[in-house]
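Input sequence (312 aa), recorded before submission:
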Amino acid sequence: MYSAFFRTFLNSPEKKIPSVSSTGFRYEWVTKVYHDGTWSLVWERAISNVRTPEFDLLVLGFSLMPTKSPSAAPPVVFTGDKDTEISAFNILLRVIYSWPVIFETAAQLCHATKLADYYCALPMLSVALNAAFCESAHFRCEILEYPVELLNASVKLRNKVLYKECMILLMGPWHSPRYKNIQDNKLKQLAVNAHHCICCKILDAQKILVEGTAVAPYLEVYRNVEAQVLAKNMWENQGAGLRVPQLYRDVLNSLVATRSHYEISIIGPLLKNELVLYPSMSMPGEGWCKDYFLCLELTDEDLPWDINEREW
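Predicted structure, token format:
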């Protein structure tokens, strides 16, 4: 059973009461809606029996005092979207039984992650996500749109692939990187450090090229391309400034045309694509990546969790 929650509570002491459910199972689990409008699964007999203080404490979770009778509690209504809950819980069940899963949206994964956290099945959901990346085409597009939300989910799941993809995407757009929208202070500081690493790479490359080029073909190409890119951006974007990744891409293309191999070896690494889920459709400085550097390299040591832990 790939859920610490169910391993603990499926055969807990209070369920030793001899009984057989109407479905032929030893006992049934049903949905319990709480006073805050949320829900969870509980043992069916725990609801039908007269409650005890222990039941209120361990199962209901909202009262430390005994309830006089089940009828004394005010009616509660589920306030969320039932289809969303059913979809997320269906994913959780498939994960627990090691069945294949396809994710459709970022919200779906985030909600399934919350359920997996409650039912202690985060490791299995993370494994299922790795297997689902290839088949979940729409979800891969959602990663591009919601890297902040999915970064939080990736940390809960301790999923290296999703974490790295989100962190790389959060480095852009270069003129206003999305990592600034991260709410978690620890994750935001990690993103700040990552952005600083890219800045250092750019400055190091510039220093090498400017100081190390005796005859200045690079500087001439750079100035010409910079003027062209700036003029093009102002024309197309009604006053938008210079996109640095686009500038470097155009400079690189010009250097390739002139076969300036030394300069190419310096600029090329800046325009490397470290995304693993978008290997061919992502060219830094072009298309939707026109204002993105994707050269951030992350190792296991950069991950904000212990990679040797197997349960969390």
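Checked by second reader. Confidence is low (pLDDT under 50) at residues 50-69.
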